Automatic annotation (TrEMBL):
The lineage of its organism: Bacteria, Pseudomonadati, Bacteroidota, Flavobacteriia, Flavobacteriales. Signal peptide: none annotated. This is Multiple inositol polyphosphate phosphatase 1. Its main location: membrane. It is found in: Membrane. One of its GO terms (molecular function) is bisphosphoglycerate 3-phosphatase activity. One of its GO terms (cellular component) is membrane. SUPFAM superfamilies: Phosphoglycerate mutase-like (SSF53254). Gene3D superfamilies: Phosphoglycerate mutase-like. Its EC number is 3.1.3.62, 3.1.3.80. PANTHER family: MULTIPLE INOSITOL POLYPHOSPHATE PHOSPHATASE 1, MULTIPLE INOSITOL POLYPHOSPHATE PHOSPHATASE-RELATED. It catalyses: 1D-myo-inositol 1,2,4,5,6-pentakisphosphate + H2O = 1D-myo-inositol 1,2,5,6-tetrakisphosphate + phosphate; 1D-myo-inositol hexakisphosphate + H2O = 1D-myo-inositol 1,2,4,5,6-pentakisphosphate + phosphate; (2R)-2,3-bisphosphoglycerate + H2O = (2R)-2-phosphoglycerate + phosphate; 1D-myo-inositol 1,2,5,6-tetrakisphosphate + H2O = 1D-myo-inositol 1,2,6-trisphosphate + phosphate.
Length: 416
């Protein structure tokens, strides 16, 4: 897998920016935002259709930190730590003082991400945010998603005092914001589907021996008290999430570059097979986003038909935006391959769904011809839809896109 030039370049990219190895814990990549392509003459923005992942958060459960801290506390009391192990123990104590009680909550960085996205959107498309605009915002029932919606909308209302946004987190929205077919759920958890092959891959790529030896001074203690594979995964998860916090501590120095890359490969493998378009799942994960795509199309058509202006904001999780990006056929996010050693070349979790990931579909209307163009932004970067032709890229005619997306929706019946 590492013989190709593209593969070598990608691996080097991870080596140079270890934060990317955090996968879906990668902090929102502000540095990637570029100047947008000028709009064709005669068109003005009138509607924004959006789906956003919640902003940066802490690990979901406090115990994900506490278990590791307790492991090192006990080892320290038994004089079983090396100097590096004792140093790590001190770092873990500081981390715990910051994260305790915040499991699953947004971090201050997460709040800044959401306000920043809202501010840049309003600055780029002020025509959409007028006092008579029809603006709605919905969220899954998760507290961090609801809070993300409130922060995002609050910033827009602060910037546009006359703007009204109808915000809603009613459980009924879960039917399209967070839909998962029975087949998809069964595939993810059935040990006879992908899990066996994944475990073989993980066994080949995760070797904790070097790090465990570097942290613990007593081999007998390790044999009786430490699960090396579990511990290296726990440390990897904490290392990845720290970039989302206002803290000057890192754990990336614990890992060799290749170790970090291989741990990320395993995480990327798991997400690709369970939520994206890996050949092994035979495209079934696209079904999870069909109710959401139907909502996107119907909401846009309503605004177009009523000749209104406005926006539809939706907030959810990585497990929602990943299949949506795939079903929309955003470039590079629907690749389907079967060789696990090449997964990382075909699909990257940190690219499709970092913290605060968002898809924006911007609609533009010609006031004379009433023709409607659309442009897609992924994490505020223009992105193409390769299966749909257009002579004015990155802009597309809404009618062409709608025809293509309706053809995808018609391949299997939607849930009632």
């Amino acid at each position: 897998m590492e013989n190709s030039n593209s593969g070598q370049m990608f691996i080097q990219d991870i080596f140079d920016t270890p934060e990317q190895s955090g996968g879906i814990s990668y902090a929102y990549p502000l540095q990637n935002i570029r100047e947008l392509t000028p709009l064709p003459d005669g068109y003005i923005p009138f509607y924004i259709s959006h789906f956003g992942r919640h902003g940066s958060r802490y690990l979901v459960d406090d115990n994900e930190y506490k278990h590791v801290l307790d492991t090192f506390r006990h080892a320290n009391s038994c004089d079983a730590l090396t100097s590096l192990g004792r140093d790590l123990y001190e770092r873990l104590k500081i981390i715990w003082s910051v994260v305790r009680g915040n499991g699953g909550n947004l971090t201050p960085l997460g709040i800044r991400q959401l306000t920043g996205i809202a501010e840049r959107m309003q600055r780029q498309y002020p025509e959409v945010f007028t006092a008579n605009a029809k603006v709605t915002a919905v969220s899954t029932t998760s507290e961090r998603c609801i809070y993300s919606m409130e922060i995002f909308c609050g910033k827009l209302k602060e910037l546009c005092p006359g703007l009204h946004i109808a915000e809603d987190a009613d459980p009924r929205h879960m039917d399209y914001l967070n839909y998962h077919t029975k087949e998809a759920v069964s595939f993810r958890y059935n040990p006879d589907t992908w899990i066996g092959k994944y475990k073989e891959f993980e066994k080949e790529h995760v070797n904790p021996d070097r790090l465990i030896t570097a942290l613990f001074s007593d081999e007998d203690y390790v044999k009786g008290s430490i699960n090396p594979v579990s511990l290296i995964w726990d440390l990897y998860n904490i290392a990845g999430i720290l970039q989302n916090m206002d803290i000057s501590i890192s754990l990336y120095d614990l890992f060799e570059k290749k170790e970090l890359f291989d741990l990320w490969q395993c995480k990327n493998y798991s997400l690709y097979v369970q939520y994206a378009n890996a050949a092994e799942n035979q495209g079934m994960m696209m079904e999870n986003a069909k109710p959401l795509l139907k909502n996107i199309i119907e909401s846009a058509d309503h605004i177009i038909e009523t000749k209104d202006i406005g926006a539809s904001f939706r907030f959810g999780h990585d497990g929602n935006i990943i299949p949506l990006a795939m079903l929309l056929h955003l470039q590079d996010f629907y690749n389907s391959i079967s060789d696990p050693s090449e997964f990382y070349n075909a699909w990257n979790d940190f690219k499709v769904s970092p913290m605060a990931a968002n898809i924006q579909i911007i609609f533009f209307r010609n006031e004379i011809s009433h023709d409607v163009l659309v442009k897609f932004l992924h994490n505020e970067q223009e992105i193409l839809i390769p299966p749909v032709e257009s002579e004015i890229l990155p802009y597309y005619r809404w009618q062409d896109l709608k025809e293509y997306y309706n053809s995808l929706l018609s391949t299997h019946p939607l849930p009632q």
